[in-house]
Amino acid sequence: MSNPVYKRVLLKLSGEVLAGEQGFGIDPNRASKLAYEVKSIYDLGINIGMVIGAGNIFRGINAADRGMDRVTGDYLGMLATIMNAIAMQDALEKIGCDTRTLSAISVNKISEPYIRRRAIRHLEKKRIVIVAGGTGNPYFSTDTAAALRATELGAEVVLKGTKVDGIYDKDPAKHRDAKRFDNISYKKVLNDDLRVMDMTAITLCRENSLPIKVFNINNSGDLKKIVLGGNIGTLVSE
């Protein structure tokens, strides 16, 4: 078996990948499938941090568009990320992965507070660290939270697991001639407004020379292939 090309990664998952066929909520079968994907790299000895979105439960910005106060909506979204984190923790621990959930919002009955040094210590002890609650502040997405935590925790790459197999020049669901990039620069992503992650997240990664790999988390085995050096998905770098 090849050796992993990364020692520490930050896995960013969209909340939608936890949803079932109805497109919302948490499907335990989906959580279990994702847990096995994560375990495939956990068993390689890689340090794993995780950030999970909340689109399967609540989107603060959408609620704001419908009249809710933006700050209130964002805090509800942060709470939804905690629900997803606990669901993933349960799925991972059922298959033998040592896991800790740390939250930027205090919910001490179900998670530890996010403290950088504590999170790093968990990683050093080979525990999967799920960071919930976003950044703990409104107006920042979970993409930005992922970029921030990856930088803080010394991750070598942000692995963004989505429902598509990389970055395209236009929506592949609407355009048959859409072109997928194997490699793309931060500058092009920003200039072309490709919506890989929000601009704050991309800028933060760019400023810290933190590469982003975008791939389809639903393709079984792709996550493991990536950490072993496989040419899967799209790499965003300088």
Blueprint of the fold:
Layout: E1 8-13, H1 28-42, E2 47-52, H2 60-65, H3 70-93, E3 99-103, E4 112-113, H4 116-124, E5 128-132, H5 142-153, E6 158-162, E7 167-168, E8 180-181, E9 183-185, H6 186-191, H7 199-207, E10 212-216, H8 222-227, E11 234-237
Parallel strand pairs: 1-2, 1-6, 2-5, 3-4, 3-5, 6-10, 9-11
Antiparallel strand pairs: 7-8, 10-11
Helix pairs in contact: 1-3, 5-7
Verbal overview:
The protein is built from eight helices and eleven strands. The two termini are 30 Å apart. The strands form two sheets. The protein has a nine-stranded mixed β-sheet, sandwiched between helices. It has a single domain (8-237), classed as Acetylglutamate kinase-like (Carbamate kinase, 3-Layer(aba) Sandwich), CATH 3.40.1160. It is an alpha/beta fold and 238 residues long.
